[in-house]
Specification:
The chain contains 13 helices and no strands. By secondary structure, it is an all-alpha fold. It has one domain. Keywords: Membrane, Transmembrane, Transmembrane helix.
Length: about 290
């Protein structure tokens, strides 16, 4: 069950990142975050009301609040990085945040078997290589690298926090709702502050019309991210966090393949090798 839900997480995150990166090329990153998370929060509000998940409120929700604050910063940095650099480079480096939940798992006493340790090592190397050695000294690429590493740490922290935010299915619905409301509050405040300073909050050459036309894509990004957080939480609660975190962080391979198929980005030999190693690492982890 852990492997299945963790791999579903990687698929959902990979597609959400691909969509978010594309949208940020036309719409300011803060606006993408706020609108997509607002749609997700609205859908989750209906789920919470329908299931009566309010009864699950408790101290654990502070983990969801923390995940919401950190996640907003991480998403903003990551979407900006995806807009600046090739998705095949930025997305794999973003997965380095896996070190955070894996470290937490080791601290609390998890000890994967030899086969799983080998799978972790192979998968992480594969995900990094899937980006290809394209990070050279151009200013924009340095900026994308800094944004990506910041996002990676944030994503890793979100994974660790959301896994602790609930103990039941209804509790998970409520935790995801609280996380999204926090995303919207923090992102909305940042968007308002940016507008006050004269920053761009609407797309050039179309403004609200472009946002309205992009609502289906924005909804997909927000809801896919919510679903990924949910499947990861289930995976982490039903098996070793170290295994769940590594399998969930295979999402860059999905982003790379989506960019290859839909954007016709060329895949280098080292990128193909990295994707293959990530697959081998997945098999080792699942077999262990």
């Amino acid at each position: 069950m852990t492997a299945l839900f963790a791999l579903a997480t990687s698929l959902l995150w990979g597609l959400a990142d691909f969509g978010g990166g594309l949208l940020t090329r036309r719409i300011p990153a803060l606006t993408v975050v706020v609108v997509s998370q607002t749609i997700a929060a609205a859908v989750l509000a209906m789920v919470v009301v329908t299931t009566g998940a309010w009864d699950e409120a408790g101290p654990r929700l502070w983990y969801a609040v923390g995940a919401g604050v950190v996640g907003t910063v991480a998403m903003l940095c990551f979407y900006q990085a995806l807009a600046l650099g090739p998705m095949g480079v930025v997305s794999p480096l973003g997965s380095l945040g896996v070190a955070v939940p894996v470290g937490v798992g080791l601290i609390v006493g998890e000890r994967p078997g030899l086969l799983q340790f080998a799978g972790i090592a192979v998968a992480v190397v594969g995900v990094v290589l899937a980006g290809g050695p394209e990070l050279r000294g151009a200013p924009v690429q340095r900026q994308a690298l800094l944004l990506t590493l910041t996002a990676a740490i944030g994503f890793g922290a979100v994974m660790a926090l959301i896994a602790e935010a609930s103990a039941s299915v209804n509790g998970l619905f409520l935790a995801l709702f609280v996380q999204r409301v926090t995303n919207v509050a923090v992102g909305g405040a940042a968007l308002w502050a940016s507008a006050r300073r004269g920053g761009r909050t609407l797309p050039e050459g179309g403004g609200p019309r472009i946002i309205l036309a992009s609502l289906p894509a924005l909804a997909f990004v927000g809801l896919a991210d919510v679903a990924a957080n949910g499947t990861y939480s289930i995976a982490a609660q039903n098996g070793p966090v170290t295994v769940a975190a590594v399998l969930a962080n295979l999402y860059p391979v999905v982003t790379v393949l989506a960019a290859l198929v839909l954007l016709k980005e060329r895949l280098k030999v080292i990128q193909a090798t990295g994707a293959g190693l990530a697959l081998v690492g997945t098999i080792l982890l699942a077999a262990g």
